[in-house]
Amino acid sequence: MPLVVQKFGGSSVATAERIMNAAGKAIRAQQAGNQVIVVVSARGDTTDELIELAKQICAHPPAREMDMLLSTGEQISIALLAMAIQTLGNKAISFTGAQVGIVTDSSHTKARIKSISTERLRAALDAGNIVIVAGFQGIDEAGNITTLGRGGSDTTAVALAAVMKQGSGVRSQESGVRGQESGKDDSSLTPDSCLLTPVSCDIYTDVDGIFTTDPRLVADARKLDVVSYDEMLELASVGANVVSSRSIEFARKFGVPLQKRSSFSEIEGTWIVPEADWMSEVVACGAAMVKDEARVAVINVPDQPGVSHQIFAAIANKNIAVDMIVQNVGTSGKASIGFTVPAGELEATLSVLEPVVLKLGGRVSSEEDVSKVSIVGTGMRTHTGVAQRMFAALAEVSVNMKMITTGDIKISVLVDKADGVKALRAVHQAFGLEKPRPGAGIPIAARAVATDAKPQAAEQDLLAQLASMEDIVVSDVVLDTQQGRITIANLPDLPGNCSRVFQAVAAAGIVVDMIVGNPSEPGRAQTSFSVPIQDIQRALEATQAVLKTIDAKASAAADPNIARLIVSGIGMRTHTGVARRMFGALAERGINIAMINTSEIRVSVVVDRPRGQEALEALKATFNLT
Ligand code: ADP
Ligand code: ASP
Ligand code: MG
Question: What is the pLDDT of residue 306?
Fold first, then answer.
C-alpha cells in the first residue's frame, strides 16, 4: 500500500480548530487508500516561547535540559492530534521520537539522525492506525532526549518517508538489520528483497507553497510550481526557511518526492523534484535573505598551509556552519580570512576562534548587524553576466556589498542589516522573479517526475546510506586547470564600484566564474575572480582600465598559475565536517589555499597550479572516491 507522510507546521496546529482540520486531511489521505504517518511541530510559537522562558531562568541554558524542554512542544501536538482523529471516529496513535526509535548523536539542540527503526511504526500502521510522530526530536544512544535544530520537524518527516520507502527493513553494513530488531534472521534480507514502498511527503504550512522570496518581505513574490532539489537546497541554506535544508537533503538522497502546500486549502503546492532541462531557461528561480548574520575577520595570520584548517577545524568542532568564506590573497607572508556565521553563533565562534588565532599571531574582529542576500537558480550554470546583474541592481539602490561569494547556482552578498530588505527587493526585481519562469505552469509533467523520483544512488548504496542517515555525501572532486585569477586590491568600498568592474569585464565578453570579495582595510576592498585562462590578459586589461577611472590607488594583478578543485555533494556547508576534512587533507600535504567558495552542493578551493594534481588525489582519498 502506498504511504503518505504528512507534516503539519506550527501554524497548522496552532488552535483546536486547526488541529481538527489537520486531522481531516490525514483521514482523507487514509480513505484514499494510503497508509498515513503524520509528523507535527509544536503549536504556533511554542518553541520560541519555551526558549524565551529558559532564557529568563539562565543566560546560557544547558543544552541537554534545553532539549528536554523543547521536545515538550511537539509532544503536546501529537497527543492533541491523535485525540482529534479518534474523535472523528478513526484509529490513531501518537509516538514521541524516542518511542519510534529515532536515534541521533548526542549534539544537543542540533543532533543528527543516526538511524530510525521501522518496526513499531509498521506494526501500528498495519493495525490500521494513522500514526502520529513528534517532529524535531530523537534520543541518543545514552537515552537522552535530543532535538534536531530549528525547523527539524521537516527533517523528521522526510527521514521517516525515506526509511519507510525501503520495504520491510534495511540491512546496515555495520550493525545488522534496522527495522527488524525482533531477532529475525537477517540472512534472508538482501537488497533485492527490500521492495520499495511508494512514498510521498506533503509538508503543510500557512502559505500556498514556496515563493520566489519571502512574501512577507516582497509583495510581488510569486508561488513556484516546481523547484529542483539543488535549487531548494541552496535557497534554504541562504535563508528561505520554508523547508529545512536537511529535509531536502534527505529527499534528494533517498528520492522522496516532496510537496510544500497549504493546510488551509486544497490547491496544489510547490513540488521539489530532480532537475529538469527547462529549469535553466531563466537565470534565477528565487532570492532569499538571512537577516541576522555576523561577519568575522581573522587578520594577519601566516599565509601558510594549514592555517585555514586550524581555524575552521576549531569552529567545525563546535558544529557551527560557516559561510561566505573569503581568503584574501596574502601580502608579505600574511593573509586575512573572512567568513560569516549566524548572528546567534557569533559568541560561540569567537570563544573558540580567539585562542587559535592568537597562537597564530593574528587577531580577530567581528561585525554584527549584517544580512546576507542571495540569488539562486539552475540557469546560472549556463547564463553569463549573472553576478554583474545582481551587483548593478544593488548599485542602483545604493547598497554597498560587504562581502561576495559565488557558487555554481547561487550568488550571495553581505550588506548592512538596514539595507537588507531594500537589497532583496532590488534583486528580486532585477531578475524578473515576479514573472512565471518559462516551463513552469506544467505541474502535471513535474508531478510525473516527482512520482518516479529516483534516488541519486543505486539501491544497494541506499541501504548502506540509511545505516548512517545523515552522513555526508560527497559525490565528486574535479580539478580545473583552465582558469586564471585576477585580484583587485584597494578598491574603494563604495556602492557601485564592484559593479563597474564586472560590467567592464562582461563588456569584454569574458565569462567570470568564481568571485570572492572582502573588505581588506577600512574603506577598501579586495576582490578576486577567476576567468578562463585564455582570457586572463584581456580581463586584466579591462579591469585595469576601469580601475583607473575609479581610484588611483586601486590596482589589479593576474595570476595564471592557479588550479581549482571543486568538491560536489549534498549538505556541503551545513555538514561542518566537509570543510574541515577538505582543509585538513590539503594542510597535511602542505598545500596552501588561496581562494575558497562554499555552498550546499559545492565547495571550491583554489591552490597553486603545480600542486593541483596532488590536491585532487588528496581530496579523493579523503572522501573515498576513486
Ligand atoms: P511552519 O513550519 O510553521 O508551517 P514554515 O517553516 O513553512 O512554517 O514557514 C512558512 C513561512 O515562511 C511563511 O509564512 C512565509 O512567510 C515564510 N517564507 C519565507 N520565505 C518563503 C518563501 N520563499 N516561500 C514561501 N514562504 C516563505
Ligand atoms: N518546533 C521546532 C521549531 O520551531 C521544530 C519545527 O517546527 O520544525 O523549530
Ligand atoms: Mg518550518
Answer: 84
Closest CA to 170 of 468, 472, 455, 467: 467
| Closest ligand to the CA of 205 | 1
Angstrom distance (rounded) from CA 424 to CA 399:
10
Residue 584, domain member (yes or no): yes
- Tally of CA atoms within 13 A in the half-sphere of 580 that contains its CB: 17
What's the pLDDT score for residue 440? 55
Instruction: Evaluate whether residue 404 is within a structural domain.
Output: yes
Using CA atoms, how far apart are residues 374 and 598, in angstroms rounded to an integer? 13
If one counts the domains in the chain, the total is 1
Residue 539: domain span: 286-438+474-622
- Give the domain CATH number at 362: 3.30.2130.10
Burial grade of 60 (CB within 10 A; 0-12, 13-18, 19 or more): exposed
pLDDT (0 to 100) of residue 625: 87
CA-CA distance, 63 to 60, in Å (whole number)? 8
φ, ψ at 442 (rounded to 5°): -120, 55
Give me the percent of the chain exceeding a pLDDT of 90: 60
Ligand closest to Cα of 45 equals 2
**Exposure of 266 by Cβ count < 10 A (0-12 exposed, 13-18 middle, 19+ buried)?**
exposed
Residue of 510, 598, 571 lying closest to 251 (CA atoms): 571
Q: How far is CA 109 from CA 37, 68, 137, 596, in A?
A: 24, 10, 9, 29
Q: What is the pLDDT of residue 193?
A: 37
Which residues surround ligand 2 with Cβ inside 6 Å? 9-10, 41-42, 47, 73, 135-136, 150-154
Task: Write the burial class of residue 59 (CB in 10 Å: 0-12 exposed, 13-18 middle, 19+ buried).
Answer: exposed
Residue 162 and residue 48 in contact, taking contact as beta carbons nearer than 8 Å: no
Q: Is any ligand 1 atom within 6 A of the Cβ of residue 9?
A: yes
Q: How far is CA 236 from CA 7, 212, 228, 378, 566, in A?
A: 18, 12, 12, 15, 21
What's this model's pTM, rounded to 2 decimal places? Answer: 0.85
In a domain, 68, yes or no: no
Q: Which residues of the chain are modeled with pLDDT < 50? A: 168-194, 444-448, 450-451
Atom of ligand 2 nearest to the CA of 48: 4
CB contact at 8 A, 562 and 533? no
